[in-house]
Design a protein that fits this description.
4-stranded antiparallel β-sheet; 174 residues; 3 helices; 10 strands; globular; binds calcium ion; 26% strand
Length: 174
């Protein structure tokens, strides 16, 4: 016998399948959009996971390097690093230049408050790769080692130490 509750179940099942179908169409549309949309980095920049990076060989202090990246491109900052893969990518980018540099500046510092690390692009502090015994109190700007202890981070004198650096910005959508 066809009861009220059966009728309710039937209506609900139809409604639910419609919602599912709608969601399927939306997901499909987003995928199509992603396929048609191209993400690019400007000439001279190397793409990594929705970001574009560039190794700058000029040796300047950490604050100057951050300003350099900000003025180089809209949305530019010193590079932030959020995973081992990300760290390896930055290291390879510098090593590829077969440069003589021992270290490069990255975009992290605790120069506002000792021990309270931040990235200059405002992204979350969710990964770190310190060399044993680092970071130290009294040194506030961070580098990645390139030759010896390659890939590990250490903190340096923000004003007096001079290193080349990695700039980063977001990909452009076209
Ligand atoms: Ca420190």
């Amino acid at each position: 016998m066809f009861s009220i509750s059966n009728a309710f179940s039937l209506v609900w099942a139809l409604l639910f399948s419609d919602i599912q179908a709608q969601r399927h169409i939306e997901v499909h549309t987003i995928r199509l959009y992603q396929d048609q949309c191209t993400m690019t980095c400007r000439s001279g920049w190397i793409g990594y996971n929705f970001t574009c990076m560039q190794f700058i060989t000029e040796e300047i202090n950490w604050s100057e390097a951050e300003v350099y990246c900000e003025s180089l491109v809209h949305g530019g900052h010193l590079a932030s690093i959020h995973s081992k893969e990300n760290n390896d990518f930055v290291l390879r980018l510098v090593q590829k230049e077969s440069s003589p540099y021992q270290k490069v500046w990255i975009g992290s510092s605790d120069n506002h408050q000792d021990g309270n690390m931040f990235w200059t692009d405002g992204s979350r502090w969710d990964y770190q790769n310190w060399l044993a015994g680092k970071p130290l109190a009294g040194l506030y700007c961070n580098t990645m080692a390139v030759i010896q202890d390659s890939g590990f981070w250490s903190d340096e004198d923000c004003n007096n130490a001079r290193y080349p650096f990695i700039c980063m910005t977001h990909v452009e959508y076209g």
